[in-house]
Structure formats: C-alpha cells, structure tokens
Amino acid sequence: MNPPGERPSRNAPRVSPSLLAADLGRFADGARACVEAGADWLHFDVMDGRFVPNLTFGAELVRALRPHSDTPFDVHLMVERPDAYVEPFAEAGASSLTVHAEASPHLQRTLAAIRAAGCRAGVALNPHTRPDVLAYVAGDLDLVLVMTVNPGFGGQEFLPAAAGKVADLRRLREQTGASFLISVDGGVDDETAPGLVRDGADVLVAGSFVFGHPDGVSGGVAALRAAAAGA
Ligand code: DX5
Ligand code: ZN
To answer: Which positions in this protein are listed as binding a divalent metal cation (predicted)?
Structure first.
C-alpha cells in the first residue's frame, strides 16, 4: 500500500525521524530538514498526559504541516480513548495512525476505523506487551510499532529485551500471511539499528539520534541508513 507521497517500496528500511526531538520553536524547519534529508516518513508523537505522563500536540499541528510536504505522516497516538482521535487526525492529513494495544479495548474495531478513514492502521506495543495480543488482528494491521523504551519521552535508553519482539512479529506475519510493516521506536541509533534490521525491522523511528547528530539532520538520516545497510 502506497499512500500519496509514499516512495515505491524497496528492501531498505524506511527512516521515520521523530519530530519530538526537533527544536519546538522551529518545528516546521525541523520537519523540512527531515524531508530534505530524504526521510521516508515523518513521525509525530501525540501524548495526552494520561496514557503517558507527557503532553505534546494534537491534530492541528499535523494539519499545519501537511501543505509543506508530501512525505507520509506517521502518527503515533500515545493517548487514552484513541478512537476519538482517528477521524480528526485522518482529516488533518495523517498517513498512518498507530494506537497503543494497552489503550484499545476494542482493537479490531479501532483498526477497521483507521482503515476506513483512509490511513494505514498501526498498533504500538509497550515494552512489556506480548506480541501475540496481535495474533487475531494480524489481517487488520498495516503496521506494528515495537516500543523499545517506555513511551512518553525521547532520549531514553534502548531496551534490548523489547527488541526481541521484532523477530517474533516477523514469525507472526509469516504464520498468518499478514503484510504489516514492523517499526521500532525508542533508542534507535547507528548501534541498535543493525540488529533491528537483521531481525526484520522495516521502519526505524529515531528522534535524538537524527536531531542530535553532529552533522545535522541530514547526517543523522544518512548515518542511520548506512548502519541499516550494513546490517
Ligand atoms: C517515545 C516516542 C518516540 C521518541 C523516540 O515515547 O514514541 O518516538 O521520540 O525518541 P528517541 O529516538 O530519542 O528514543
Ligand atoms: Zn513515537
């Protein structure tokens, strides 16, 4: 599935810089730098101060940035009651909407609503959440986001145990004949990326590494691609 602006699929993992790590006073410049660096997607971390102890932004930010690029917007909803946000974010221009399994008691219904709204349907798993909670919705999924930190903040230490789910999900995908992408979020850098890619990661979400790179955002994206290519 290639939403508008999606590049043709290829074997190399997609890079999705997390704008949470951008200079919030120059948010549009941060997004533009990612696009110019060739980022495949842009990752938006939506936090409600309830599901996670931090508060960020809502659909209006997505709407404000949408006219400035056709790069797919990869929206990660770290919110309670995510169903209430599907329509507003889809309408604002999200390309994918990822809800947390832990916040979604009626996950299949939520995923169906996301697809009906025209977005790629994703589920994020907290580090302690078993991947087999997805076994009976595998066909409803376009994306699974493996959290390798506890969600809520950028710049945290990578949790290797949680990364073990990438290989589990690849097996689940094979067993079920599903076609979801496997994305990894939290502590992704040039050291952790190769193992993730070897295990089957299709998308690398990275905030601190990309925005904190000594050679700027373009250096960060390039370094992540190089690390992934050497996997
Ligand atoms: C954490 C967010 C991440 C965060 C990643 O709750 O979901 O997307 O921005 O930041 P880094 O790459 O710094 O771990
Ligand atoms: Zn995220």
So the answer is: 43, 45, 76, 185
